[in-house]
Amino acid sequence: MTPLDCVEGKGLACVRGGRTVFRDVGFRLARGEALVVEGPNGSGKTSLLRLVAGLLPAASGTLWVSGGDIVIEEREERGKLIGWLGHHDAVKPQLTAAELLRFFARLQGTRAQSVTAALERVGLSCAADLPCQYLSAGQKKRLALARLKLCGRPLWLLDEPLAALDADGKSLLLTMMREHLATGGLALVATHDPIDLEAARLQLA
Amino acid sequence: MSAFAALLARDIRLAARAGGSAMLALGFFAAVVTLLPLGIGSEARLLASIAAGVLWIAAVLANLLTLDRLFQADYEDGSLDLFALSPLSLEGIAGAKIMAHWLTTGLPLTILSPLLAVLLHLPAAAYPALLVSLLTGTPAISAIGAVATALTVTVRRGGLLLPLIVLPLLTPVVIFGAGTVLASIDGLQNGGIWFLAAFAGVTLPLSPFVAAAALRLNLSE
């Protein structure tokens, strides 16, 4: 995992469709820390995550990540540090769970040997050779979790990660997050469900 | 390079699986061409004179049918977000997808075309020109189509908009592609093949960059 020390945003604003979603949002996240972004529907939780990922440009404000002596401000460079668990699962119905993970492992340049272990970790080893169209919404989410783990990025951006997961899945997610933080990872979690995580909170109006 | 190969292999696999675009395009191409003699009669000379045009137009339409979902499927299920965050640049993503599209659509269509040309009584002398012109022209269709689909990726039912953008840009390909085949029936060479080659030579290297710019624009909407 590429070491990453700090992610910091100052005076961030986001405009979508001519409407200001939020403005003057700031946060600071250091190694091993998580930040939970809370707020009602439409308050810009997803937009903030997309902005941090570099998928959306900020209307104003600055955002930078630093690791060692290197400071990255460029959007697409930042993307390579990000583990993304979006609202959509990015699961192809025609591919099997193992094929999907192997593809993303090769795309991200991680070792594909750990695919079996990643599937086992999220409790999907029995579905490894099943086309994803037969997976339930919760199983797809677990598959997305396995991909997140497999890609080994230092900054996790999780958008409503608890949605569709059962009680077992929720505790699995929390365990994986704690492990990620314990190994020096960083995480930004957008959710409106209560989440049992020792982390700072950022309230979006 | 391994990321490029991974995406190429994935797209080929998706196209080849049940419900994939490869069979759809081939089936459509074969259906249009076989339906034609049923509609306008089986007179050999009439069919021979229109065979080149019919094969070329059917090939373009079959391509359009599958281009529609080139980026949209990945946009809708969130894969495109992950691609944008991968070590492979969006230019590389677009390049891999264009190549996969040609390998699963343009190439199989070209290989099938001589079989269908028999149905249309295309004279034997024109077969080499048919194959060479399709082989040269279809990559340009994939390239131009990819740019248009990248532009319309966020438009709901953008597939309906696609022909309006792509067809005018593809008229030179159809004119020179079919023209090459027609001239070869009379044993002539009209130089159309060189135009096709030049057209593909310009559009192919440029299209990944243009498509990537369009994707970047649409992703940051």
Number of helices of chain B: 9
Shape of chain A: globular
The description of the largest β-sheet of chain A is: 5 strands, parallel
- Domains of chain B (count): 1
CA radius of gyration of chain B is 18 Å
SS class of chain A:
alpha/beta
Uncertain segments of chain A of ≥5 residues (pLDDT<50)? none
Quick take:
The complex is a heterodimer of chains A (205) and B (221). Chain A has helices spanning 45-53, 75-79, 97-108, 115-121, 137-151, 167-182, and strands at residues 6-16, 19-30, 34-38, 60-67, 70-72, 82-85, 155-159, 186-190, 200-203.
Written account of the structure:
- The complex is a heterodimer of chains A (205) and B (221).
- With 205 residues, chain A is an alpha/beta fold.
- Chain A contains 6 helices and 9 strands.
- Chain A has a 5-stranded parallel beta sheet with strand order 6-7-8-3-9, sandwiched between helices. A 4-stranded antiparallel beta sheet of chain A has the order 2-1-4-5.
- The mean pLDDT of chain A is 88.
- Chain B has one domain (2-219).
- Chain B has helices at residues 2-16, 21-40, 44-67, 72-76, 79-84, 90-119, 127-151, 162-185, 192-219.
- In chain B, helix 3 runs parallel beside helix 7 and helix 7 packs parallel to helix 9 (192-219).
What's the topology here?
The complex is a heterodimer of chains A (205) and B (221).
Chain A: E1 6-16, E2 19-30, E3 34-38, H1 45-53, E4 60-67, E5 70-72, H2 75-79, E6 82-85, H3 97-108, H4 115-121, H5 137-151, E7 155-159, H6 167-182, E8 186-190, E9 200-203
Helix pairs in contact in A: 3-5, 4-5
Chain B: H1 2-16, H2 21-40, H3 44-67, H4 72-76, H5 79-84, H6 90-119, H7 127-151, H8 162-185, H9 192-219
Helix pairs in contact in B: 1-6, 2-3, 2-6, 3-6, 3-7, 3-8, 6-7, 6-9, 7-8, 7-9, 8-9
